[in-house]
Amino acid sequence: MSEKKIVEERSLILNRRSFLGKAAMGVGGIGLASLIGNNLFRKGSNGLYTADSGAGGVKGVLDSLHHPSKIKRVIYLFQSGGPSQLELFDYKPLLNQRRGEDLPESIRNGQRLTGMTSGQDRFPLVGSNFGFQRHGKNGTYVSDLLPYTAKMVDDICIIKSMYTEAINHDPAVTFFQTGSQQPGRPSIGSWLSYGLGSENENLPAFTVLLSRGSGRPNGQPLYTRLWGNGFLHSLHQGVQFRAAKDPVLYLNDPKGTTADVKRSMLDKLAELNDQHYQESGDPEIQSRIAQYEMAYRMQTSVPDVMNTDGEPDYIYKMYGSDAKIPGTFAANCLLARRLAEKDVRFIQLYHMGWDQHDNLPGAIQKQAKDVDQASAALVADLKQRGLLEDTLVIWGGEFGRTNYSQGLLTDTTYGRDHHPRCFTMWMAGGGIKPGMVYGETDEFGYNIVKNPVHVHDFQATMLHQLGINHEKFTYKYQGRRFRLTDVEGKVINDILA
Amino acid sequence: MIQLGIQIGHLHPLFVHLPIGIILLTFLLEVYSRFIAKKSFDEVIEFTLLVAGVTAILSLGTGWLLSEESGYDEDAIFLHRWMAVAFTITTILLYLVKRSKRNGVNKTYIPLFLVVLGLISLTGHFGGNMTHGEDYLFVEEKEEIVITNVQEAQVYAQIIQPILDDKCMSCHNASKAKGGLVMSSPNEMIKGGDNGRLLDTLSGSTGSLFLERVHLPIENEDHMPPKGKVQLTDNEKALLEWWMENNHCFDCRVMELSTEERMAAVLTSLEQDTSTIAVLSKEAKEVPKDWLQGMRNAGIPIQTLSGKNQLLAVNLAGIDSITKDQLKALEEYAPNIVEIDLGFSNFNDELMSYIRPFRNLLKLKLQNTKVTDAIGKYLVDFELLESLNLYGTSVTDKLIQELKRNKKLQNIYLWKTDVTDDGLVQLQRNLPNLTIQQLEADLFEATVLDPPTILSDASFFSDSLVLTIENLFEGTDIYYTLDGSVPNSSSTKYEANIILNNTASVKAIAVKKDWEPSFVTERTFIKNNIAYTDVNLLTTPNEKYKGQKGKTLIDQKRGSINFVDGNWLGFEGKHLNAIIELKEKNTISKVSIGALSAPASWIFYPTAFVISSSNDGVNFKEIGRKDMGIESPNAEVKLAFFDMEFTPTDAKYVKLQIQSPLKNPDWHTNPGGKSWIFIDEVVLN
């Protein structure tokens, strides 16, 4: 082993050790790791950030953008569970006419099934139990379940031809968030934190807000690795803001600690840490010092963002009165706007409960009510504040739902299984054509017939709007250069204004 | 035979460079040897001249054979060929002169060498012109074709010919017309080449020789442009096809031709970006990295729009300590600054004069700052301004009336300002292209108030229970009923705690001015004044859903639809039989059984239940029976209490037989499967 190798090996061991030390601190410790504004850091020779307490350091690993960006930030309203496109956006009257008839084999064309319907001996077609009306300047069909979204239809771009490769929740969500079905890659927000850094030195670049849907309150859980940093430095991990007294775990001081005590404790600790750094040279130690400082600053910045007491009544009238209830999707949408105003780069919301295998009509009514008004209000609120110009709002799930019924089919009820071949998303804001409908599915709502958009295309387009060429934005790990879009992805120029 | 000759002729490019290099080297040797006065060089020079002569002959020979190939301009070949002949002869002559020891001959050596150098230069130049084109060496500055509106563009002159110029003309020009084809003008194009007419050789528009050559696989010898040359891009091919489909019109404009949807994007991609930002970025001078870093160190977040685009965006949003010195420091690259965000900062009228030099501002964000109408006189000077955010400032109609000259303004944000509706109308009249970004007034008019929450420690009580009802919003009125009827604003108004003395279903609504009244919220409270000792389960619940065994039924805790919550007893494919022991003998006349139904999870309501009483715990007498039958088809998850009243009976022990459907009903997706019943509570009264 050459001397250089030995040095490299030593630094790896150090990193491993510091990682384990951090894990021992618990979730909060790891959470704090990603709260670091980039201007505290300088990229070290190993490609990781190292601490640099000087003001105005490197902002993200990208020295400058690949091309001028259209947007500064992204708000991703992830609809977890797979919302049914057929009840919400993709109007297919044929399915109502042929209700109960079998899905023709020529349409299904060998599509694999989930374990949940593979035992079913028939696939009876079923149309939406909810009506569709034309809305907006272009007469776009929107379901009666989404009255507020319908009113904002001229401001959003609906993509009806999304498709994915995964058929079950975990791989499908992981695919959307990291570009790979297997766990282990960085989430979109982590990539952006790594590439672009934070615009606000008092808040993390990547924040996460969760809410449970009323459509299926006990649906699939989500895993923290979905906002994980993968192989990137842990400081790029998403920070979850919880709907509780302590929005960020372990951020508040223990009882009896005053600001003075805290300050002198941090100063002393930094001294000790620095001593250790002089001995070992482990860059993670310097990161840690900066992380404590960041957490210190967040003790005021986080409560400031999370405290919505000052929001006037008319704002609650926009987002819906449940925005008053912490932890609801509406409350999270309101927080998303507040975070956007503070220049947080990537704001990820997850709303669970769209996985409606049975009793879909009942469940989706409640679920749509959870999100409709708040999603529309978010777009509207950003618009009146001038933020929509440089914010991209994304609304969509990990896959769609089948055009045939899973389980019981009666006049009033039916279910739908997972469907990866086509589903609907919408985007609004910075540089996306407003009022547009892109892509088309066949009259059975089963296959795409025009302008298919792959998950990687969607990711490439999002990066493009942020000024990043998805093919050039890589991270070398285990001898390979990784990208968010893996080895695929085309920017969907047709939807760009 | 000719073919073989041409084959050998293809070696011409290999040989031609030899005599050129060797002659030049010889000349250098000659000069050098005279400089250092070394006679021994002469032999070397003699030899190199011999080699030059031989290679010159080889080049001449192969060149002659190559000229048999068609496609070369005769005039150009004539010059190149005879120049080469002259060069070859003089080179051989030079060699002989060098060898000659005669004095008179020696004197001609240097002049002859200069002639040889002249000849080789000219020969090479003419040769080069044939292979690379006459304009290769001295590129004529061609006028750049700029298409701003593709619909107006000339299809042939502005779109097709530039592609031909770029990809075809180096071989198909007037001086080098391979295959006899020249592609420099419509007439030549129509005429075609040696292989026939180019554009309409075959019948049908796509069967032209032109497109056939383009579409041949690249390995094919006839593929055009030939392998090794720069190929046509997909867009270029699409454009050529589209032009041919439209009968290769030479004097049409784009809008006159039929355009399929797929072509629209290709055509648009030809449009040159003439937006203000594109023009500015072309003119922008480069910003040094250390200057940027210096600005950042001074607390000014600033960055170039991209690595190539040197325009600048400054983000001072949220900073409450902006100073005039900071703004002055930016002046050095003022023309580069196109965007500045000052929102939520300490920016004010006084600082406004310091951003005056940023004449190229396209985006100015002043939301939630202290600026007033006084900034108007500065704003009018930003003539390129495209987006202006004044939301949350105290500007009035006076300011926006001054914005007449800002003709490029596209978006303005005036929410929460003192601008009146009349002011907006006036503004729109002054700047018709401007979008005033605001929401329609009635967009969120009919928002429903959140239902109130009924709060209490328990759902069961023995004597009385205190309830409170809350709503999240201030200024809300709550109305309620206790008799099961739907409440409205004429029901009892909630003012203070409610005290319940009997089982009741409480329903409440919230009402607030300007809001739609809330939906009804409902909660049932059950009075239960009988004390129990224990419950003895005669049938065993499933291991996964056994709760606190028999106690689960009398713990006064309701289960939720999340049936793994531990408050349920679940029985798979069997009935529930249990004996409840009362603390003391009581008169009972009513029983309520709490059950769950979730057909998708194979859980159904019980089909019937039987109540028997006993005083000794051994001999039971049936006192009531209720049949509910099998559920009708549904898939909802739901809870219910099943009540039964019967003749008042004294009892110390009560036996309960709750019957399960045992099997999934016929309408279920898995008919006949072992079904479940879930029971959380039994209440006697």
TrEMBL record, chain A:
Record InterPro entries: Alkaline_phosphatase_core_sf, DUF1501, TAT_signal_bac_arc
Superkingdom in the source lineage: Bacteria
Keywords for this protein: Membrane, Transmembrane, Transmembrane helix
Transmembrane segments: 20-41
Pfam family, one: DUF1501
PANTHER family in the cross-refs: BLL7424 PROTEIN, DUF1501 DOMAIN-CONTAINING PROTEIN
Designated name of the protein: Tat (Twin-arginine translocation) pathway signal sequence
The species this protein was found in: Maribacter arcticus
Automatic annotation (TrEMBL), chain B:
InterPro entries registered for this protein in UniProt: Cyt_c_Planctomycete-type, DUF2231_TM, FA58C, Fn3_assoc_repeat, Galactose-bd-like_sf, LRR_dom_sf
Keyword DNA repair: no
Keywords: Membrane, Transmembrane, Transmembrane helix
Top-rank lineage group of the source organism: Bacteria
Domain F5/8 type C intervals: 565-669
Boundaries of every Cytochrome C Planctomycete-type domain copy: 168-228
Domain DUF2231: residue ranges: 11-131
The protein's name in its UniProt record: Uncharacterized membrane protein
Membrane-spanning parts: 14-32, 44-66, 78-97, 109-128
Species in which this protein is naturally found: Maribacter arcticus
